[in-house]
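Sample pair:
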Amino acid sequence: MAEQTVCGETILRVEGLKKFFPLKAGIFKRVVGDVKAVNDVSFFLREGETLGLVGESGCGKTTTGRCIPRLIEPTAGSIQYNLGGKMVELTELNREELKQVRQEIQVIFQDPFSSLNPRMTVGEIIGEPMKVNKVCSPSERDERVRELLRRVNLTTDMINRYPHEFSGGQRQRISVARALALSTKVIICDESVSALDVSVQAQILNMLKELQREMGLSYLFIAHDLNVVEHISHRVAVMYLGRIVEMAESGPLYDKPLHPYTEALLSAIPTGDPLLRKKRIHLAGSVPDSSNPPPGCNFHPRCSYATKLCEGEVPQLVKMKDQPGRFVACHRADELRLLGYMELRDRASGE
């Protein structure tokens, strides 16, 4: 997991975030329902901290990340950002005010090839944010681009080359350099290493951690691979069907999960040993339709610990009294004894 650093004040606070996409049917395309992609999500991010956001595909991670800088408009909820020492409500900003905030909140997307303009050189790609926002002169912009290339471990002679001339890892480094072009403080990494080879993933993760130490960056690191998240995140939030079901520091969450879904995700992490068959928790059924989620706890149809209470009442994300900084949405969190990653591995090795 990421080494514990002294994190500063809260830089981003999300409360009750919702994003519903309308379902239309018929000749007149009338709205007949909603896809509840994000449904009442709350979390916070501190200065210099990495918060991992994990879960299965379709759970709402990417939608959550894109709602924060309003790349897509949220349906409801509050998104507060610490701008110059004052918490600003992003959902209330006009286009010009939002443009200023977006100089400090950047997004790195999953596919570096499709997110880079193939008709622009590396120098133009990295320098474009500075040009659009008119933050420096052309000569200063050129020097800044060269500095950013060095920061992401690329050589300055690459400045006039095009994206198709680079490998996937190099293109992602270019995306990181572009994200740092302005006065960046928060970077939303949306599956930013999932399309890369394992060895390249490690290089990019190490670079991101080094940049965080040097520049005090805060990351919202969105991923489905808990093995990757463990090595970069200070805290982890687990999402299921549009809701956060558990949030805690990385160590306690991996050692002692409090939500059955977290336990199942930990059991799916590969061990790296082909001879070791780790105990795998197989979930019943499939992920429910987010346009028609089950009543009560969304996870109860697939949960082996579910009771009648789980079927009828939605569990709220509450803070655990005896565990500082730990939140869970499970009616049975106080009574269940779930297995952590090491216990799952050790139990398998003893079978």
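The first strand starts at residue 10 and ends at 25.
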